[in-house]
Amino acid sequence: MKKAKIIHLFLAFITLISTLFLFNQPTFAATKKVENGIVMKKIKQSKELVVGTSADYPPLEFTTSVNGNTKYVGVDIELAKDIAKDLHAKLVIKNMSFDSLLVALETGKVDMVISAMTPNPERKKSVDFSKIYYKPSGEYFLINKRDQSKYRKIKDFADQTVGAQTGSIQYQLIQSQMKKSKVKGLGKINNLVLALKSGKMSGVVMEELTAKAYAQNDNSLMAVRSDLREQQAGNAVAVAKGQGDLVKAVNKTINRVEKKNLINKEYLPAAAKYMKTAQKTNTMAKYAPYFVKGVGYTLVITVFSVLIGIVLGMLLALMRLSRNKLLHWIAVCYIEFIRGTPQMVQILFVYFGVGALISNLSAVVAGIIAIGLNSGAYVAEDIRSGIASVAKGQTEAARSLGLSQAKTYRYVIIPQALKNIWPALGNEFITLLKDSSLVSVIGVTELMYQTELIQTSTYRGVLPLFIAMIIYFIMTFTLTRLLNYLEKRMKHND
User: Domain ABC transmembrane type-1: where (predicted)?
Assistant: First the structure.
């Protein structure tokens, strides 16, 4: 294969990647040492305040459905609205896993974090905090009501599994004060509740209001005050290091909220109203638009990722078959590295790592790129095996007829190779469609992300998952039928 042909393929791949950046919205790119005042300046210029939260913690932050659209509600969301109002900015909520919030803050994906976060010493090393705006009354055990006579105190959970949100104070409390118990951390509260109800855990440690919220909305659960020694200072707003002017502005809003007692007079009653409404109207039919939106994003991610995977896979396969040692080893190193690292780690690295250097890298595009780059490594090996399966006599015959090496590959080798590897490529495309669910970890609103929103809004764990499984099956079955049809057409054209 001529080097020029490889360069052309590489340029085509770069062009495809570049088009994806047209979908981005500009965001603030963080550096190791953030200039003082740069976040406030960005907020004033964009007229937007981007707040990160993990909206699965009622009544502090959770979601509800209003006219088929997701609405973020709760105490923390109301505080965020007041802060945005005082900053004369539009509030933009980014919902993601709790343990990803501080990373998002440090890399500039969000301007601040408001998510029932306690300013402990470890977190203060990475970010700054506002003053305390809400102090929880204590920690509670959320247990199955059938176990109310078994689990009341720390000692009752000896040799039992107890859950808490990953990266939370509750997780640390279990580790330090419940050493005879097995701690299990999950990123989402609704998944912890699902694990509790299915018997995977004996209890979940939560802040009082959240534990009572789940117990009030699920008759099979019960909230019990724990005997864990309190270590919380309270909840505060997290801001990037060195942003003193922004912390001052946030504290000003908190002072006003405290003076008017807005948390008790307005925020909590409003949250309770949404929770009561959700309890009465939490039918799955109401959340059909959520599933539709999730399917749309899933298909977009899949299509673009397939395009990246095919172009990159073809390029890497030709590079690995090249006689040029440099191109060969670049391809080998890339393929082995990608296949040797978890895809979720790659997604997080592209979004938070590369995203810290590229200011306009959105979560959707980061997810597409990460999945596409991962797929390219596997497609490359499929294509390489397909090329190797073509008899050498085909190449010799083509060259003897006067075809150049490039035309031999284009008209003789590649078409036959694709027919040979079509089933393997089909499996890769189906796997890629399902793997699109992994991008929910960075807040992309694909099907799995929407399913988690429905779980949070309805306080139901299994039914939304079952519906998501059916939808994934329909999509993969349809794709399988299409691939089988194309395979038959290929054989018919032989």
Answer: 295-483
Residue 28 domain flag: no
Strand order in the sheet with 90-95: 90-95, 48-53, 112-117, 236-240, 127-129
Domain containing residue 380: CATH number: 1.10.3720.10
DSSP label at residue 233: -
pLDDT, one tens digit per residue, over 295-327 is 999 999 999 999 999 999 989 988 998 888 999
Q: DSSP letter at 411?
A: I
- In sequence order, what are the residues at sequence separation of 6 or more whose Cβ sits closer than 8 angstroms to the Cβ of residue 60? 74, 75, 76, 115, 116, 134, 207, 209, 210, 235, 271
pLDDT number for residue 408: 75
Quick one: 410 and 486 in the same domain? Answer: yes
Check whether residue 16 and residue 100 sit in a common domain: no
Number of domains in the chain: 3
Task: Return the structure tokens found at 64.
Answer: 């509800």
Q: What is the pLDDT of residue 370?
A: 94
CA dihedral of residues 85, 86, 90, 91 (deg, nearest 10): -80
Pairing, β 48-53 against β 90-95:
parallel
> Residues in the chain with pLDDT < 50?
1-2, 20-33
Q: Is residue 29 domain-resident?
A: no
Regarding whether 18 and 42 lie in a shared domain, the answer is no
Q: What is the pLDDT of residue 21?
A: 44
Residue 130, pLDDT score: 95
Reference 310, options 8, 9, 1; nearest CA is: 9
Show the domain range for 199.
139-225
Residue 283 identity: T
CA distance 460 to 443: 21
For tokens 């497609």, name the residue. 379
Q: Does residue 369 contact residue 408 with C-beta atoms inside 8 Å? A: no
d(CA 168, CA 373): 32
In the chain the first and final C-alpha atoms are separated, in Å, by 25
